[in-house]
Design a protein that fits this description.
Blueprint: H1 8-11, E1 19-22, H2 32-43, E2 48-51, H3 53-59, E3 68-71, H4 75-81, E4 85-88, E5 94-98, E6 104-109, E7 111-112, H5 115-118, H6 121-125, E8 138-139, H7 142-147, E9 157-159, E10 164-167, H8 171-177, E11 179-180, H9 186-192, H10 195-207, E12 210-211, H11 213-221, H12 231-243, H13 247-257, H14 259-263, H15 265-272, H16 276-293, H17 300-316, H18 322-337, H19 341-358, H20 371-385
Parallel strand pairs: 3-6, 11-12
Antiparallel strand pairs: 1-10, 2-3, 2-9, 4-5, 5-6, 7-8, 9-10
Helix pairs in contact: 10-12, 10-13, 13-16, 16-17, 16-20, 17-18, 17-19, 17-20, 19-20
The protein binds adenosine-5'-triphosphate and magnesium ion (MG).
Adenosine-5'-triphosphate binds at residues 52-53, 65, 68, 149-150, 154-155, 193, 195-196, 418.
Length: 418
């Protein structure tokens, strides 16, 4: 079906000509509600495409987490078309279209990066320019919306009516070559938003993609910029790396690029010493990935404890005041990543309980509300040590060292996989 609006290049002579590819996407793989939203927007004369991670995952044969839509309709126009619509966001307004079962189809108006026109290219390249994006986005054209995105694989539009991919950013060759590449100059894009360094690691690890060498070099060169990013975003991205099903590969890349040394120097230094104790981190991360594949992702507190266990044990081992040693170690972590107090306290509780259980001192632990989480942490660590998991920790399995969450006593809080 022809689009109701003229193609962007007719309106904007500057607009790059997109490459258009026939998409090898089965309509059944796309959420039917997302297709409905697109159809209604199109019928009302707007442009509308599937965008972002959903398109990337479809093209890579991975299971998309969610389906986002970009459209020429303004948020209020979207709202007037859908009764089940809620406008959210103060900085940039988005439409959330709600469906049964809590499903949300995020529908955003095409927007551009406003700094793209006030900074001339040379200025953008100069070392001393502060590129961190601090202002809001403004509405734009489809090609501008594609260009503001982080990686080429994330900048593709899927036209569900024509079953084609519209590519302004060279994303399709990178999907085929399975490579992470920034849209535009990598140094500039990482300085604008250093969290993109962690996102590159996430996509490379989770989807098993290569990283374009100049992009990798820029990640290393710009890693210190991570210290300037919004701290809650950093913590969230670290948790995403732990939850994504490729925690081992993710943290290997974190270590290798030096990003770990910037964000969690305690963990990086622990790994650097290369001792058998430090190598157990990889075993715990493997175990997390195994649990995730089995659909029983541990809680954030267990994940974060598993990441920090090595340095924590090193700090508290044999000291008279373990709490003080723990606080001293965690002070920097809390500061760098804005770790909420509750999470910090929970990590201490779980690590302590895990140590007591390992020493065979069960006491009243099985009656504590944190027992399931502590048991899961113990099972991750036992797996890393290649030790048999204690019998009382769950059902017998053929593989005694397979990690498993403790779930007998009480249903654990589960988080939907991302
Ligand atoms: P996931 O599967 O982990 O959700 P995603 O690619 O969908 O991956 P989101 O954080 O949901 O990631 O973001 C949706 C889209 O928004 C991305 O695909 C990308 O196009 C764009 N985007 C997200 N974060 C950034 C960023 N920091 N800089 C530029 N574009 C971004
Ligand atoms: Mg997403």
């Amino acid at each position: 079906m022809a689009s109701a609006t003229p193609p962007p290049e007719a309106l904007f002579p500057d607009a790059p000509e997109p490459a258009v590819y026939d998409a090898d996407v089965r309509p059944d793989d796309v959420d039917p509600d997302a297709l409905k939203v697109i159809r209604r927007l199109r019928r009302s004369g707007y442009q509308a495409y599937l965008v972002g991670g959903g398109v990337r995952d479809l093209l890579l044969n991975a299971k998309p987490k969610d389906f986002d839509i970009a459209t020429s309709a303004r948020p209020n126009e979207v709202r007037s078309l859908f009764r089940n619509c809620r406008i959210i966001g103060r900085r940039f307004r988005l439409a959330h279209i709600l469906f049964g079962g809590g499903k949300i189809i995020e529908t955003a108006t095409f927007r551009r990066d406003p700094s793209a026109d006030d900074d001339d290219d040379d200025a953008r390249r100069r070392e001393d320019v502060d590129l961190l994006i601090r202002h809001d986005n403004v509405f734009g054209e489809p090609w501008e919306d594609a260009m503001r995105r982080d990686f080429t694989i994330n900048g593709l539009f899927y036209d569900s009516e024509a079953n084609t991919v519209i590519d302004y950013v060279g994303g399709m060759p990178d999907i085929r070559g399975r490579v992470v590449r920034t849209i535009g100059q990598p140094d500039v894009r990482f300085r604008e938003d250093p969290v993109r360094i962690l996102r590159a690691i996430k996509f490379s690890a989770r989807l098993d993609l290569g990283i374009d060498p100049p992009v990798y070099d820029a990640m290393v060169a710009q890693r210190d910029e991570l210290a300037r990013a919004a701290r809650p975003r950093l913590l969230e991205e670290i948790l995403r790396l732990l939850r994504g099903g490729a925690a081992h590969r993710s943290f290997w890349l974190m270590w290798e690029t030096g990003a770990l040394g910037v964000l969690l120097p305690q963990v990086a230094m622990h790994l650097d010493d290369g001792s058998p104790d430090s190598r157990r981190l990889w075993g715990r991360l493997d175990a997390i990935d195994t649990l995730r594949r089995a659909g029983s992702l541990p809680t954030d507190a267990v994940l974060f404890s598993a990441l920090l266990l090595g340095p924590i044990e090193e700090a508290v081992d044999g000291v008279p005041d373990a709490t003080r040693a723990y606080e001293a170690l965690m002070q920097d972590v809390v500061e760098t990543l804005a770790v909420p107090r509750r999470l910090k306290e929970r990590v201490r509780t779980l690590v302590q309980a895990q140590r007591r259980m390992r020493a065979g001192k069960m006491g009243a632990l099985p009656r504590r509300e944190y027992f399931d989480e502590a048991s899961t942490l113990l099972s991750l660590e036992s797996h890393a040590r290649g030790e048999r998991i204690p019998d009382w920790l769950g059902e017998e399995t053929d593989d005694d060292t397979a990690p498993r969450p403790r779930t007998r006593r009480r249903r654990r809080r589960r988080r939907a996989p991302e």
